[in-house]
Amino acid sequence: MSLNGGGESQNASSGTPDSPKPTIELIHLPTIEEIRGQDIWNNCAVRSVVSGVIESTFQEEMTATQQIAFQAKQMAQRSWSSCKAFAVMGLIFSASECIVEKARAKHDITHTVVAGCTTGGAISARGYRTKSSMRWLCWFAAFSVVMEKFMERHS
Questions:
Q1: 18-72 pLDDT per residue, tens
Q2: Taking the chain, what is the end-to-end CA distance rounded to the nearest angstrom?
Q3: Angle between helices 32-41 and 44-58 (to 10 degrees)
Q4: Measuring CA to CA, how many Å separate 30 from each of 37, 39, 42, 48, 57?
Q5: Number of other CB atoms surrounding residue 120 within 10 Å
Q6: How far is it, in rounded angstroms, from Cα 15 to Cα 19?
Q7: What Å distances lie between residue 63 and 55, 69, 77, 152, CA to CA?
Q8: CA atoms within 13 A on the CB side of 19
Q9: Which residue, 115, 92, 91, 88, is CA-closest to 103?
């Protein structure tokens, strides 16, 4: 093998001899001013104020009466949605608690735990995620027990 022969096959495999090489970019470390700016923006109070200012600038085109009416409509829609959700939770909890209490024929904390588990499971059933369902189930059961103990102490 000659030296030229090896060099020709090397050039043929790598493309043209004048092929551009990839450029390497240096890592840019943030300056002190950039770090301070990020720290300021990560503050929850600053974000809240900026959000309120931006929202108010969008609503400056409305009169005060229009803004009140707009916000009242939004609040009514959210309130109605929450009302329906709590009504469903109350219905499921009280029905399951009543059924368990009637079946066991005694009043103790067990039926509260079962009713809490049933309600938590029913609430999370729409998500179809097992981890989420288990969290809701456990959380609602624990909350039910805490509320039952709280109500027993004050009655």
A1: 777 778 878 888 889 888 888 887 777 777 777 766 665 555 677 778 888 888 8
A2: 101
A3: 70
A4: 10, 12, 16, 25, 31
A5: 25
A6: 7
A7: 14, 10, 21, 51
A8: 9
A9: 115
